[in-house]
Amino acid sequence: MEFSRPRILAISARIVVPLLLAVAVSGATAQKATPQDANRFPAAAMGFLGGELPAMEAAITARDRDYFEDAMGRMLDFSDSWGFKSGANPALARFPMCTEAVSDFLVVGMCRIMTTSSACEPGMATRFNTNLQQCRELAARL
After folding, report:
1. What span, in angstroms and rounded, lies between the C-alpha atoms of 72 and 90?
2. Which segments of the chain does DSSP mark as H helices, in order?
């Protein structure tokens, strides 16, 4: 049985076009995941925490545990966009006070609701507050 050239081209197009679209989408995703300018990270971290901390305070007052699940997703999105959880942006290593403040704020908040949890280490809230203050000061200087 002989295949005609137009039919082969049509079949190839059905296979190649979706592959090209997948490559284009993955390229756009890879560009999105490109590490951002590390010098802007302290200000971005403070912007993120500036929005989350008042909402967390309200959730603690209302004993609203659902807030923490949603906030975890936002925190992961933020950390992924900067590449500090994946290590994709090694330049952020010089800002541990900011990465730790972003990583720890939810645990510190949950410990205010669930005081007997094993994740609630003594000194965690003090460490968080110190990191938060240092990150705030750094953001003001950069």
Report:
1. 22
2. 5-32, 41-62, 66-82, 96-113, 124-141
Across residues 96-113, what is the average pLDDT? 94
Average pLDDT over residues 43-48: 98
Those residues with Cβ within 8 angstroms of residue 74's Cβ, 6 or more apart along the chain or in another chain: 48, 52
23/20 Cα distance (integer angstroms): 5
Question: 1 in helix, strand or coil?
Answer: coil
What is d(CA 129, CA 97) in angstroms, rounded to the nearest whole number?
A: 10
How far apart (Å, rounded) are the C-alpha atoms in residues 26 and 32? 10
Task: For residue 38, give every residue at least 6 positions away whose Cβ sits within 8 Å of its Cβ, in sequence order, or none.
Answer: 89, 91, 92, 94, 95
